[in-house]
Automatic annotation (TrEMBL):
Cited PANTHER family: PENTATRICOPEPTIDE REPEAT-CONTAINING PROTEIN, PENTATRICOPEPTIDE REPEAT-CONTAINING PROTEIN ELI1, CHLOROPLASTIC-LIKE ISOFORM X2
Record's keyword annotation contains Protease: no
Entry keyword annotation includes Repeat: yes
GO molecular function, one term: RNA binding
Family, as annotated: Belongs to the PPR family. PCMP-E subfamily.
Source taxon at top rank: Eukaryota
One Pfam family of this chain: PPR
UniProt xrefs under InterPro entries: E_motif, PPR_At4g14850-like_plant, PPR_rpt, TPR-like_helical_dom_sf
PPR repeats: 75-109
Identification of the protein by name: Pentatricopeptide repeat-containing protein
Length: 260
């Protein structure tokens, strides 16, 4: 476009930056940023958001923060890009700090804002802060809780070793929500149970995962390991029998397809 003599507007620039961010093309994205500097293009909130998102996703969080600080007309999208970037890089305390700054500036958070700040809290073990924010979503900010918000909280609680609370959080997920989010949540909790040695909740999580994804053979492997560590040998034998039976069913199904 530029080589042909056309001057791209901010919409075209941000679209290209977004593509560079998705592919991790740092060289091309920086070249676009340099173009805006050379031509002294006005960095409005739209372009600033694109630049913040690009640099954050490419790992240059300090550069993203610098551009963010220079933007004088920050919108919700600009704030979300910065908060998401901080959360992505595990800067939990800064994520919460920027979330608070956004609210103080008069901008109301949305569902994306809460997903990002909860992820940041999860990566930094900020359990109490996350619980407070989760409770305030509807009461203070009038933001509906969605499947991903429950999933973020379950992940946070599981990482912190609060296995029972994590299971309760997943059980509270909307019944009409997608099974994918529930599967991810229960699978993640099963991993947490494995780390913390909570067999009781692991059995519940394994049951839920198998119901949502019957072909998932990894569930039995995890349970075999946990039962073996607890020296529950009868349960080890039962799990292995289930694994063998499932394997036979798969082989028979495959044979039937060949015949048909």
């Amino acid at each position: 476009m530029i080589d042909s003599g056309f001057k791209p507007d901010n919409v075209a620039i941000v679209s290209t930056l977004s593509a560079c961010a998705q592919t991790g093309d740092l060289k091309k994205g920086k070249a676009i940023h340099d173009y805006t500097k050379r031509n002294r293009l006005f960095i409005d909130s739209y372009l600033a958001t694109g630049l913040v998102d690009f640099y954050a996703k490419c790992g240059f969080i300090d550069t993203a923060m610098e551009i963010f600080s220079l933007c004088s007309d920050k919108t919700l999208f600009t704030w979300n890009a910065m908060i998401t970037g901080l959360a992505m890089h595990g800067n939990g305390e800064l994520t919460v700090d920027y979330f608070s700054r956004m609210v103080s500036s008069g901008i109301k958070p949305d569902g994306v804002s809460f997903i990002s700040v909860l992820v940041g809290c999860s990566h930094s073990g900020l359990v109490d802060e996350a619980k407070k924010l989760f409770d305030q979503m509807g009461s203070l900010y009038d933001v509906d809780r969605e499947m991903k918000h429950y999933g973020c909280m379950a992940d946070l609680l599981g990482r912190a070793g609060l296995i029972e609370e994590a299971a309760e959080m997943i059980e509270q997920m909307p019944k009409d929500g997608g099974n994918r989010e529930k599967l991810l949540a229960w699978s993640g909790l099963l991993g947490g149970c494995r780390i913390h040695g909570n067999i009781e909740v692991a059995e519940k999580a394994a049951e839920r995962v198998k119901a949502l994804s019957p072909e998932d053979g990894g569930v039995c492997k995890v349970m075999v390991e946990m039962y073996a560590n607890a020296e529950r040998w009868e349960d080890v034998v039962k799990c292995r029998e289930v694994m063998e039976r499932d394997e036979k069913v798969k082989k028979n199904a495959g044979f039937s397809k060949v015949l048909s």
